[in-house]
Amino acid sequence: MRGYFVTATGTDIGKTYVSASLLSVWRAQGQTVAATKPLMSGFDEDTLEQSDAGRLLVAMGQAVTPASVSEICLHRLAPPLAPNVAMRQAGISQNYNEILRFVEGRLKTCEGCHLVEGAGGVMSPVTDTTLQIDLMADLRLPVILVTAPYLGSISHTLSALEVLEARGLDVSAVVVSQPSVHGSDPVSFSEELNRFRDVNLFLVPHASVAPVADLARHLRGS
What we know:
- The model has no long low-confidence stretch (mean pLDDT 93).
- The chain has a six-stranded parallel beta sheet, with helices on both faces.
- The chain has one domain: P-loop containing nucleotide triphosphate hydrolases (Rossmann fold, 3-Layer(aba) Sandwich), CATH 3.40.50.
- 42% of the residues lie in helices and 17% in strands.
- Helix 1 runs parallel beside helix 2 (52-60) and helix 1 packs across helix 9 (212-221).
- It contains nine helices and eight strands.
- By secondary structure, it is of the alpha/beta class.
């Protein structure tokens, strides 16, 4: 099993788009794929296919049902809030060890290429006392960092790389997404980022799947 943790510089950056595209490319190549989204918030139960977990299931070639979503997602919370806040408001116990065991169990039982998609950014909360970076450090999976060319993103991306490396995590790829068709040019952003850091950089322009094939090959070969 080859696994990766997909994180980002913030929310609505393109984690799920990149994750689903990778799963689709690998599956089209005949690879066995799996995904885990341990925490999900801000979705409509009546339109599960449009949720992050739903989109991952579609990319895996699986039906989207409440049961199948529960298989890959431990806690799904409707309010568009940080998971720890949503769990607190819903009266759900914030058991970090339970979340960690859920992901570890998925990694042990699922074969092939496995993506674990975090919630929010690198330093976003998991519970009131733990962060996404803590979950990444405990899982020890190589990381795919998704960023985007928005104002302030150079700082956010460099900060994310610093904290990931400080925790001893291997950043296998930095993906420059373009969540909006009106977003800034990912090429110019990448050139600026390369002034400060030498990283494995992959560009995924808006609604473009083809460049993900290069990323998929890189990850399979790394």
